[in-house]
Amino acid sequence: VPVLCLCCACAHNFRKSESSVGVLDIFGFENFENNSFEQLCINVANEQMQLYFNDHIFQLEADECAKEGVSLSTIVFTTNKPILELFLDKRQGLFAQLDEESKFPRATDKTLGTKLHKTHGKNQRSIYIAPRDGGTSFTIKHYAGAVRYNLEAFLEKNRDTLPPALILTMKASTSFLVREMFHSHMSHTGSIKPSMRQRDSRKSVKKPGAMSSPFGLSRKASRISTRAKRGPDRAKAVRGRAAADSASSRARQAMTVGNHFRNSLGELMEKMKAASPHFVRCIKPNSKKAPKCFTSDYVLAQLRYTGILETTRIRREGFAIRLFFEDFLARYNVMANLLVPVDGRRSPMEACKLIVDYFGVSGYQVGAWRESSWTVLAVAVSLLGVTVSLLGVAVLLLYALTELLLDGL
After folding, report:
1. Residue 110, CA distances (Å) to 92, 117, 118, 152 in order
2. Closest Cα to residue 332, out of 405, 393, 403?
3. Largest CB tally within 10 Å, which of 155, 323, 347, 383?
4. From CA 130, how far away is CA 156, in angstroms rounded?
5. What is the pLDDT confidence band of residue 193, given thresholds at 50, 70 and 90?
């Protein structure tokens, strides 16, 4: 189930009068028969997004209730911070131990599993479940459910290295584009940085009629590429420079996929926290892509995986029913006519409190939100959360109807 997040904020590197819109479209929570390193990264990203989403929704509720002067001490929601700490802790986290094990050439999936089971299988049994035989698998209790991961090829996928001979060959390629790609440095998030020549080319002002390459290089760079092809001596010189850079290349390759993933996820969260997010949850009615077909179990699983059920619970506990005094009295006018004396001495707020107190409704609070005009004459007061559950509303209506029937008899 894809999760779409729209982030709208002023970019720091833009002028103040300009804005930027970022669109993040990620895979939803994944749980297959065979879950590997790819599913682990996707699910950790979803865990991070779920934590941010819950905190964001709770903060919206807190801000709204703060305006009304209503306490939110009764709201309790389950946080998935311990799950994220299990993965992202800098010292004992799963990714940190995976990177540490990836440094040893003789490390195997078995040794990795033994290390993870020993560290997390004993200290965090409520989240990390190690197999009884101590094999190359483990189970994580995510917010959306338990997922069993297979450690096979974890180390290989995390290293993701190319043979040194292949790297040197690509750096000595006669193709300028290939050489430029393999001479470029890699950022801490795993993306390729522009080379010094590319940065200089982007800063320079383009002359009229100048041709540029796909990397923004001028004709001068193309001429350099042509001269590099001339003669075996020039090719040997290029290979020599490539060999000299092998040490720095190996240092860059020490950055694993897991390290890049953590850095990229941290950078993403920093951008999202500085933005104004809007979330769109996509729910599929069925797995067959068929019209007029609704599979309830399939939809329920998606609602659970995307955290919508948890979000609904937070909103429900945060005074989800918010009525103005007049609207409450109009909706329950039968009870108002029975309980509120027609003497004009009681305000709408007092009339509402009289009704809910008479029927013993608990868990509601009266808000104090006011919006005044310049003349301080237009004052509107709302009843934030005559927060009655659907069961409570049904009881009130049933009680009123019973009294009407008795009066009729």
Report:
1. 18, 11, 12, 9
2. 393
3. 383
4. 21
5. confident
